[in-house]
Amino acid sequence: MSARIHPSILAADFARLGAELERIRTADLIHFDVMDYHFVPNLSFGMPIFETITASSPLPLDVHLMISDPGRWAPGYAEAGAASVTFHAEATDDPAAVARDIRAAGARPALALKPGTAIEPYLEILGEFDMVLVMTVEPGFGGQAFMPETMPKLRALRERVDAEGLELRLQVDGGIDATTIATAAEHGADTFVAGSSVFGAENAAAQIELLRETADAHTHAH
Ligand SMILES: O=C(CO)[C@@H](O)[C@H](O)COP(=O)(O)O
Ligand SMILES: [Fe+2]
């Protein structure tokens, strides 16, 4: 299975949304960043834009909720057709319950960790999730620099997943380009969000292919 590339629509030109969706049709999923001016100091978009993109895109959406109180909002994205719904561990006291609600509503649940958040408190509930997102920037903005200090956490998670034979994808998000994707793949990521590096490329399809090939070339058997 080759590396999965999820362009972050946050970096698209929203005045030309239809054409932007067309430019990334060879990607695996569309990454959709929801920000609420509360969990993060930025506001992006929510359900109306989600529904517009879902209705007009051939690719399903990978929703990344950077919001407070995810238990209240996450199942709605699953019901509206999201392929996966990711919420932050820091935003809830009961991540296992939120994960079950997302799954019951028809999407794959995923747990996101900010760069400074450890995975250890969540090891016993990994079975509730289909994916863990190791943030490689502080959530809130596109276009930031990749944080290599998050790589030991990613590697520890990869070793645990392989040792226990868990069905868990490991996603990275933030500052992913043709250079940093190699580092993330070497440390065990298999799913890659890329905003600026895809939408900023003149040929987005070629950039998606370059990212996929670079990740595959740096992936150890797992
Ligand atoms: O969740 C976030 C930011 O909080 C991301 O999904 C960004 O949108 C990725 O953008 P680039 O760092 O690739 O430009
Ligand atoms: Fe994101």
UniProtKB/TrEMBL annotation:
Tell me if Ubl conjugation is a UniProt keyword of this record: no
GO (cellular component) term, any one: cytoplasm
Active site, per annotation: D33 (proton acceptor), D173 (proton donor)
The UniProt entry, under InterPro entries, shows: Aldolase_TIM, Ribul_P_3_epim, Ribul_P_3_epim-like, RibuloseP-bd_barrel
What Pfam families does its record include? Ribul_P_3_epim
Show the catalytic activity. Answer: D-ribulose 5-phosphate = D-xylulose 5-phosphate
Question: What UniProt keywords apply to this chain's record, in alphabetical order?
Answer: Carbohydrate metabolism, Cobalt, Isomerase, Manganese, Metal-binding, Zinc
Q: Where does substrate bind?
A: S8, H64, G140, F141, G142, G143, D173, G174, G175, G195, S196
Record: residues binding a divalent metal cation: H31, D33, H64, D173
Q: Which cofactor does it need?
A: Mn(2+); Co(2+); a divalent metal cation; Zn(2+)
> What does the record note about the cofactor?
Binds 1 divalent metal cation per subunit.
EC number(s) from the headed UniProt entry: 5.1.3.1
| One GO MF term | D-ribulose-phosphate 3-epimerase activity
Could you tell me which HAMAP family the record lists for this protein?
RPE
Q: What does this protein do?
A: Catalyzes the reversible epimerization of D-ribulose 5-phosphate to D-xylulose 5-phosphate.
As for family, the record states: Belongs to the ribulose-phosphate 3-epimerase family.
What is the name attached to this protein's record? Answer: Ribulose-phosphate 3-epimerase
Instruction: Say which species the protein is native to.
Output: Herbiconiux oxytropis
Name the gene that codes for it. rpe
